[in-house]
């Protein structure tokens, strides 16, 4: 959890605008998926990378810092397409809008604070996909299992013990 914050902070300080270290890699991945490398796609990837677990609306706001004229619809379309080709993964916390992240393919799960909505990554519980072994697979070849850990984050726990009014 803390580790993740450190990485994000590090990236922000080393970001020099146009030359994001991952952009070349992303361009390559886009081509491998038969997509053209456009500044819209790169800007959306950049935004999602900078703000893991952001909503589509948060992503629009972030992308507009680079491409002020991009429409909400365009960002949604790009996000959906990047999700389809697996460069972005989508996570839907209970009762809250979908979140997006560039951490894909590692079958990780999420811990969700029921009080403030904070989301943290949790490594795959068993160590490989589909992670859980259900008693019945109904003849399906199971690819993945998504676990949502619902809880109360440390900050909210502290607020509750201190009697502060929870948000
Ligand atoms: Zn919380
Ligand atoms: Zn995540």
TrEMBL record:
Q: What subcellular locations does the record give? A: Cytoplasm
UniProt entry tagged with the keyword Electron transport: no
Give the record's keywords alphabetically: Cytoplasm, DNA-binding, Iron, Metal-binding, Repressor, Transcription, Transcription regulation, Zinc
Coiled coil regions, renumbered to chain: none
Indicate the family of this protein.
Belongs to the Fur family.
| Classification via Pfam families | FUR
Q: What is this protein called?
A: Fur family transcriptional regulator
